[in-house]
Amino acid sequence: MIGKSLINSKIWIPPVAVFFLGIASVHGQETKKDTLREKEIDEVVVVAYGKAKKNSYTGSVATISSDKINNRPVTNITKALEGQVAGLQAVSASGQPGAVASVRIRGIGSVSASSDPLYVVDGLPFDGNLNAISPNDIESISVLKDATASSLYGSRGANGVIIITTKSGKKGESRINFNISQGFSSRAVRDYKQVTTDQYFELYWEALRNGFVANQIAPQQAAQMASDALISGSNGLGINPYGSNFAKPVGTDGKLLPGAKALWDDNWANVLQRTAARNQVDLDFSGGSDKSNYYFSLGYLDDKGVAIESGFKKYSTRLKLNSEVKKWLNVGANLSYTNSIQQAPPSSDSSSDNIINVGRSIPSFYPYYERNGDGSYRLDASGNNIFDFGKYRPSNALQNQNLAATLPLDKNENKEDNFSGKGFLDFTFLPELKFKSSFSVDLVNYNGHYYTNPLLGQGTEIGGSVTRTNSRTLSYTTSNILTYDKKFGQHHINLLAGQEFYKYDYQTISGNRSQFSLPYYYEPDAAALLGGFSGNSDKLSLLSFLGKVEYDYANKYFVSGSVRSDGSSRFAPENRWGTFWSVGGSWKASNENFIKDLNFFNQLTLRASYGGQGNDKIMRGSQSIYYAYQSLYTFYNNLGEPGTVASKLPTPELKWETNLNLNLGLEFAILNNRIKGNVEYFERKSQDLLFDTPLAPSLGFSSFQANIGTLKNTGFEFSLFTTPIKTEDFEWNVDVNLSTLNNKITKLPKASIISGTKLLTEGGSVYDFYLPTWVGVNPSNGKPLWKTIKTDANGQTVEGTTSVVGEATRELQGSALPKLMGGLTTSINYKNFDLSALLTFRIGGKILDTDYTSIMSSGNLGGRSWSAEILNRWTPENPNTDVPGLSTTTNNWTTASSRFLYSATYARLKNVSIGYTLPSDYFEKIGLKKFRIYLQGENLLTFYNHKGMDPEQALDGTTYYRYPAMRTITFGIQATL
């Protein structure tokens, strides 16, 4: 059966993936050979500090062209990377407009240190917010994956490098490009299905009845007590949506009374979420002559979120100039500025005001406007509806809260100003000898404004509150590179030597006040009571020296070597410097006569590389540590007297974490370049891990940093680019990329380390789940069962079961990391029509859905929403089920266990675009060169098994009440003058 194919054990392949794979396997067709044009296979790609020809380059590099980025309706470029490159994993855990996707290249490179790649913009590292880079300004993206490709960036490129090249003006007539799009967004995945009001009242009656029976009350009396307590008892729901005519709507038989009908059905998700508008405008001017070129762009984006009072607005501009001042001197400047405003109500944690969680947690029989006994709205003196804050609601139903009323009065605002400036001087001393001096600065000014109003909601208890946070991040990089490039007959040599310096300076202050004397005043000056004031700063310096040599003979045999020495201020002086290197080679076999004589390969290149890189990005949780070798302190106010407490132990012996990378690759092209492909094997070993080692709390420190342990990532990558049909009027391209990943911890300081729901152990992965094993439900009494493993008096292992989760044995339950991931792209061009589609997928891995457990209680969380799965709960008539019997007595069955581990396998139709370019002769009279209209969709369809959960979750495979992914439909117009 196609939709249920199995690979190894229980890995579900979505039917749509099989469909796309079927398309990719269609035999290529030719109808007009004389009109065929070869694909350009000697592609020039951007690499570290320069460019190279891809089919002879010794390193592993993949490129994404501008047409796959420019028109995607994404606010952040990281969200356009998924499925585009083999070996690159981009996970968009949050759909909040302006949120950044987590990107990993060839696995997880560290346990406690950062695994983020380095972003390089126009040749120099970029430290600004990635939201500041407009997709419309991007010319291409190169992904450097192995040591040869990224080693020249040293420690900063230890986890791979993503090089973004922005557009430049081109020689010839000046051009004006205009792109405007408008659209709308909604949830990409529907939320979990819940029970109806009628079902809820009958189910909760059952839970009350069973709770009374558990307290030794006779069943008949318990039934009457449940009917009496359903609305107004100590565990009652607090409201009767059936009206005064049905004071006790559920009878002693557990069924709604005849004629009882809910008078309202207020879906909280509907009032807290919406169909949101999206508007984007991009305008750019470009041109050039023999000696200079320019590019200037303006951009505007207004992306409303699906949650009310959320969204992202951005204004951006970029100016790029290049000029040949003298025959021996080229100069250039690249300046960009972005102002952004993000409206971001809480949506990524378990707090009670998380707008996503609130919409899911409150059942629809709790109204968001106050109701009379007959179901009509209660009105104020002005005849307006009155928001219902649910003071009568149980605490589990978020008592005294109504975000529909309070959020429009509150502020959850993040403002950012991003400035990035780059400049260079390029000297040509001899045709083969050049020197380039570059400078790059990134300045990010952030201002957070969080205000809780004093009029409505929880803020009334403290008269409202306000928090202001401001931070300033300044970083700059200076680079001086000398290159020598010379051909001697069939010999070619390229030499590079350089020096680089990086400086990072971060400062932040924050303060809060409460007790506003007047409403609608948002600033701290309007509040009376000072709550707190804090501030801190961090600095980092990195000095580097680098060199590279490349040699090739007869355009067939290529070798390269590089070395870079980095000195980081994170380490003590005696361990500050680390030296890292790479060697690589490639053989362009297709240039050999015996391969040419086969008349089969248009290109055949073998390559191999090996090298080591350092990592100094030490982390404690989500916080970066800039003074790793020093003691750190926390300061306290003790009744006005200062106090100091050590918060971190000194670790002067700490040194660089090292990544050793092996890459083996084969690149080929056949059938007149109609089929191109690339197969690579990688092995990435991380040693001397910068490990945040836990300590016993009794020692006074939670952890300390040390170089311990080793980690290895291995896998295969496969990319295939095909053109099944290509004629004068019609072209069809199908591309596929696949990558496998095996992450393994090979050495730890002790046998195992427990970290929440994960277990670090030798032979396991960094994201292995360690949970009690769910056995099911006891068919005789409806109690939950978990597995126990004990040792008897004879030393024999004995397995059993328990209904007390605290007695259950935790076991390894699989990894969050996928076994296979990739993307399928197809594009069709017919005359003036164009159509493209991108399908992304992952196979294998698991997700622990803790969001789902919040609506899966046994009845002890009275007033909290219930999943429709509760309808299959245990009863004497339904003994064989996976849902325990209901009771107001807590049984902890929703504790994290294998019961709530789900397959992470999914496929998503990430993007579909269809466009039509009007014939140019229609607009020649008004000077238009191109006019295209298009319609596109993002996150259109998602194929997965566990309905209600968005399968695109955090890398560690645990849900956390996050903002859902958005499905976006846009219509746009592109014009070129």
UniProtKB/TrEMBL annotation:
<dbReference type="InterPro" id="IPR036942">
    <property type="entry name" value="Beta-barrel_TonB_sf"/>
</dbReference>
<keyword id="KW-1134">Transmembrane beta strand</keyword>
<keyword id="KW-0813">Transport</keyword>
<keyword id="KW-0812">Transmembrane</keyword>
<protein>
    <submittedName>
        <fullName>TonB-linked outer membrane protein, SusC/RagA family</fullName>
    </submittedName>
</protein>
<dbReference type="InterPro" id="IPR023996">
    <property type="entry name" value="TonB-dep_OMP_SusC/RagA"/>
</dbReference>
<dbReference type="InterPro" id="IPR039426">
    <property type="entry name" value="TonB-dep_rcpt-like"/>
</dbReference>
<dbReference type="GO" id="GO:0009279">
    <property type="term" value="C:cell outer membrane"/>
</dbReference>
<dbReference type="Pfam" id="PF07715">
    <property type="entry name" value="Plug"/>
</dbReference>
<dbReference type="InterPro" id="IPR037066">
    <property type="entry name" value="Plug_dom_sf"/>
</dbReference>
<dbReference type="InterPro" id="IPR012910">
    <property type="entry name" value="Plug_dom"/>
</dbReference>
<keyword id="KW-0998">Cell outer membrane</keyword>
<keyword id="KW-0472">Membrane</keyword>
<feature type="domain" description="TonB-dependent receptor plug">
    <location>
        <begin position="54"/>
        <end position="161"/>
    </location>
</feature>
<dbReference type="InterPro" id="IPR023997">
    <property type="entry name" value="TonB-dep_OMP_SusC/RagA_CS"/>
</dbReference>
<comment type="similarity">
    <text>Belongs to the TonB-dependent receptor family.</text>
</comment>
